[in-house]
Specification:
By secondary structure, the protein is an all-alpha fold. It is built from seven helices and no strands. Helix 1 (5-13) packs across helix 2, helix 3 runs parallel beside helix 5 (70-78) and helix 5 packs antiparallel against helix 7 (86-103). The longest helix has 18 residues, at 86-103.
């Protein structure tokens, strides 16, 4: 699994906090009825709204791993247009394309 360098550094400096953070994420992911692909598409939209390139890439990657198609990823990114605006959506599409190209989709 891909982990960005800043997270790896955080994990090595604060292993207990990183472990608790990971556990919290797992609990949140399993707290409701959404399937894994849908959860990561929802997280992708949240990441776009937060204007977080790392989170957009992470959830795009995870959504693809859980079976999302390239078209579903683009649709999730396009939905951001009327909520966060054109510049944020275009930036997020660029971040998503990095993952799509790296995954060969």
């Amino acid at each position: 699994m891909y982990l960005p360098k800043p997270f790896k550094q955080f994990e090595s400096e604060y292993p207990e906090i990183a472990k608790l953070y990971e556990e919290l994420g797992l609990k949140c992911q399993s707290a409701g009825p959404l399937d894994p692909k849908t959860r990561h598409l929802v997280n992708l939209g949240i990441a776009v709204g937060a204007v977080s390139p790392g989170a957009v890439k992470s959830h795009a990657r995870k959504a693809l791993e859980k079976g999302a198609s390239r078209e579903e990823l683009y649709h999730a990114l396009l939905l951001a247009l009327t909520t966060v605006g054109f510049p944020a959506m275009i930036a997020a599409i660029g971040w998503g394309e990095v993952v799509i190209k790296a995954e060969g989709k």
